[in-house]
Each structure stands twice: as C-alpha cells, then as structure tokens.
Design a protein that fits this description.
mainly alpha
C-alpha cells in the first residue's frame, strides 16, 4: 500500500458498507496497479515479458481506493 493514504477519508467514504463491501473495494483497488501496467505494456500478451519484481513495484494509492469506493454501492442501510 502506498504511503500517504488518508485512512480517515477512506473510512468516511465507506460508511454504510458491509465487510463484504469493504472486501470488494480492497480487491478492486488492488487490481488497479496491474490494470495500469497492462495498459503500459500493451496488453496481456506482453505482460509475460515483465519480471515479478516489475509487476509488484506499483502500489495501491489513495486514488485507487477512492475509484474503487465509487464502484461499490454500500449494502447496509441506516
């Protein structure tokens, strides 16, 4: 996880989310660095040319988390 994540902001944005919702947010945010890398290298066929270290060097950022929060609708009512 990238440094500088404002966890208070993440908590506020996930109000009303269940544990499963939080899990989905985290999973989606975790895939975002890989999606960026796939775009950079030109797709799935070229990804095998990268080393494991290169694949793991990008971290999940605050922006990744906020984008994932937008995609998941809270399932717990007031």
């Amino acid at each position: 996880m990238a440094g500088g994540v404002d966890w208070d902001s993440v908590v506020k944005q996930t109000e009303g989310c269940s544990g499963a919702d939080i899990c989905n947010i985290c999973r989606d945010a975790a895939y975002m660095p890989m999606r960026r890398r796939l775009i950079q290298v030109g797709g799935i066929a070229q990804i095998s040319q990268l080393s494991q270290a290169e694949l793991l060097e990008e971290e999940v950022s605050q922006l990744d988390l906020m984008e994932a929060v937008k995609k998941v609708r809270p399932s717990v009512g007031a």
